[in-house]
Amino acid sequence: MLKPGTRVTVLIKELTDKGDGIAYLEGRPLYVAGALVNERAIVMLTQIKPNFMQGKLEQLIASDPQRQADFCIYQACGGCQLRVLGYQAQLALKQQLLIDVLHTHQLACPVASTLGMAEPFHYRNKAQYAVRPGAQIGFYAKLSHQLIDIKECVVQAPITSLVVAQLKLWMQTETVSAYNELTEQGCVRHIMIRNGINSGQVMVVLVVNELLTEHERASLLLALQNIVGLTSVMLNINKAKGNRVLGDTTHLLWGKSEIIDSLAGLKFAISAQSFYQINPKQTEALYQEALRLAAPQPQDIAFDLYCGIGTISLFLAPRVGQVYGIEVVAEAIVDAKKNAQLNGLSNLEFYTGKAEQVVPTLYSQGIKADLVIVDPPRKGCDTTLLATLVAMQPSRLVYVSCNPKSLARDLEWLTHQGFTLEQATPVDMFPHTMHVEAVVLLTWQGRK
């Protein structure tokens, strides 16, 4: 009988969406972190449930030829699930994942090679660290609430490690307490760092449970004074229970309330609360691919749905006649309007509200798009919105997705209503993870 501690030899058949290997034992899936497809391994069982088992990889008998040495010393961190798989193999895997999910929904179209990075490290422009007693600053271990104290993360911008080191020293020197989740006492809860990859500007946001004293504020600024590019130091107040990082109130301690970064020559103002793509280099690749597929024309009326702070809208504006951006988050629309002004673009209108409500209203007013770009959250698009797009019949619909499963579901619905699937391109926004971004072009052919 199988029990925890038993060692078994298994063949890894596939990967989960979290990057764990899956073998099958006695008709049940056995999940093995760190194992790759087609690898034969000796695994020690750690957990046995009626419907699944967990195991620890102990020895590889036959390994994937694309396996590489682990580049991270923090193996308990679940952030980079594919770090032992060579980067070119990661790109091929992500292309295949998109092909497979489209095939599951009987969708046929060319799937291009994954657009990857020349240097897939230090790509993140935003870092969020949890802080716990003992001046522990880091990330939570995979599938747990156990904090891993991290000195350096190779996917974060290098400036991040310097900021964290200075803040840790400041907390220890000034005896500033860390927040204790059990007692709900203590001061510092999180640290958020945003940096402009192209501008070099840095924002540090200290998230606290209680206000700092005047001396602590002064010493904090002194501790950060040698950070190159420091532009903004913010204090965010969060007294709420739970794991929410930012509270509703943010104070400017020093510098400016925003940093500026650029993408493809466009400037973007980024506040503490702004949504801004985590990987700017790949964001450019993603949006340039979206524009290539969209083939915008000077006379086009374009809709940018789920527009956020207007990133795609600003990419579109110089190439089309008019852009309508729609976003449910009011603060993002404020940022979008500000970004349009910052770049001297006037052929944009932004609306606050749900796309499934605003688009039907605009359509009923006679505003019809020639080109639509949608970039929805992971759950995909609302069917009311999709139905309005079918009624509107734009000649081109570009779907940008962060979730292949909801993407395929929506594409299946759209193709049954008169759209034709032309091309899909996976984009590697988060190297070394299982995350797959995709850009898909559909054209209107009409109901058959």
From TrEMBL:
Coiled coil: none annotated. Catalyzes the formation of 5-methyl-uridine at position 1939 (m5U1939) in 23S rRNA. Belongs to the class I-like SAM-binding methyltransferase superfamily. RNA M5U methyltransferase family. This is 23S rRNA (Uracil(1939)-C(5))-methyltransferase RlmD. The lineage of its organism: Bacteria, Pseudomonadati, Pseudomonadota, Gammaproteobacteria, Aeromonadales. Residues 1-59 form the TRAM domain. The keyword Iron-sulfur applies. S-adenosyl-L-methionine binds at Q277, Y306, E327, D375. GO terms for biological process: rRNA base methylation. One of its GO terms (molecular function) is rRNA (uridine-C5-)-methyltransferase activity. CDD domains: AdoMet_MTases. SUPFAM superfamilies: Nucleic acid-binding proteins, S-adenosyl-L-methionine-dependent methyltransferases. It comes from the Bacteria. Keywords: Iron, Iron-sulfur, Metal-binding, Methyltransferase, rRNA processing, S-adenosyl-L-methionine, Transferase. The active site is at C402, C402 (nucleophile). Pfam families: TRAM, tRNA_U5-meth_tr. It catalyses: uridine(1939) in 23S rRNA + S-adenosyl-L-methionine = 5-methyluridine(1939) in 23S rRNA + S-adenosyl-L-homocysteine + H(+).
